[in-house]
Amino acid sequence: MTQSDMRDDILKKRIDEFEETLEERLNDENFQSEETDVDFYLEDVEIAEDDPNAPTDDEYGDMIQEEKKDVDEFDNEAYDRYLGAELSINRGDGVIRWRVVKRACGNNGEFIGWSHNNPLMDSREYWIEFPDGDEEKLRQM
């Protein structure tokens, strides 16, 4: 909504009605159990692995999924989309070509930086190699 929309009495009334309806629907009192002797939440219930009533993996079927790790949790650099990338940059009257060869590590042996969907927020650093064999550390492209 723009400020001019907010000055419109009809739109302002509709917004107020919407907010009242939303507040009523999201009111926590609408989602409480009638039972008063309930003293646990569904999240608190744990099924022991040796419980005969626990569903088997076959009964779960395709609902079982392996836990997926964040890209930066992998020790294997093969998951990094930039590794092996070959790029060229126009500089002056020529073109400079280089290839990303590996992630840069700090003194502690851990990778430098974190990946992010927004390239401006991605802080990873890489080693790049030029055709003449020289290498240089470069912050994420």
Describe the structure.
With 141 residues, the chain is of the alpha+beta class. It folds into two domains: 3-63, no CATH class; 71-139, no CATH class. Helices cover 18% and strands 18% of the residues. It has helices spanning 3-7, 9-25, 57-60; strands at 86-91, 94-103, 125-129, 135-139. The chain has a four-stranded antiparallel beta sheet with strand order 1-2-3-4, with no helix packed on it. The two termini are 37 Å apart. Residues 71-78 have low confidence and may be disordered.
**Number of helices, counting only DSSP H or I runs of 4 residues or more:** 3
Could you tell me the number of beta strands?
Answer: 4
What is the strand content? Answer: 15-25%
Q: Main β-sheet: number of strands, strand sense, barrel status?
A: 4 strands, antiparallel
Overall average residue pLDDT: 77
**Helical residues, percent:** 10-25%
Estimate nothing, just give the exact number of structural domains: 2
Uncertain regions spanning at least 5 consecutive residues: 71-78
What is the H-and-E element order?
HHHEEEE
